[in-house]
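Quick bug: biotin--[biotin carboxyl-carrier protein] ligase output formatted oddly.
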Amino acid sequence: MGFVLAPTCVSEGFRLEAHDKVGSTNALALERARDGDPGRLWIVSKQQDSGRGRRGRAWATPPGNLAATLLLVTGGDLRTAATLGFVAGLALADALNAAVPNGRFAIAPDGGSGAGRKRFELKWPNDVLAEGAKLAGILLESSVLGQDRCAIAVGIGVNVVAYPDDVPYPATSLRALGATCEAETLFLALSDAWSENARLWNEGRGLTEIRRRWLSRAAGLGSQVAVRVDGNVVRGVFETIDEDCRFVIRDDRGDVLTIAAGDVHFGAVASAGAA
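Here's what came back:
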């Protein structure tokens, strides 16, 4: 089958642009916005060769994996739009649960928050884990269009058939975990789950419920973490995310620290030091 949108998504005015291969779905989405696209456009591919992750890191997508970007054009403030990353995480977790049959995964990589607690967990701020290993990443990028309009590219990359082996953290793919789901099937479920979670988010008015749902799937909640922030490593217990979805930890002195951006490490890495 090819890529298709869920009927709920079509009924809400979303459109689809599918490719066999692209440079970057995020870059293409922002290009469409600058050319006048009104948004609500999904751009998808099973291969991209110049994708990006957080902090400019490369994120290649070999054939068979899923690269998807939703372009939204909004007049709202960027602070509220930034919380769409949590909407995307919830939508992807819902889609994975719908598209991947129940059953125990074939392997349980080390280094996560405790294998078996949930099949898919959300790691602050933008990863989806499967039994402790990174399965997917989310990247939001924006571009000011003028006249109080802004383009938001919600990029989602999923390791469906392959995962990188040259990264400093555990990674996995659906295939490595014993699942037979294809990129097209997962995207169909994702487009449906996005509509449901975006309605709940309600332009930011429903962020309290999004936060509650996100925390119910949070990886490492209540455990020791190490967070690399601007070259420094902060350690403590992951307590919650606040009303603005910032990471909140309590350090060894009992002080509460709120972190807006950083790289989070769990388990043995948190104890020994964040690489």
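Actually, after a second look the formatting is fine. Residues 103 and 227 are 33 Å apart (CA to CA). Closing.
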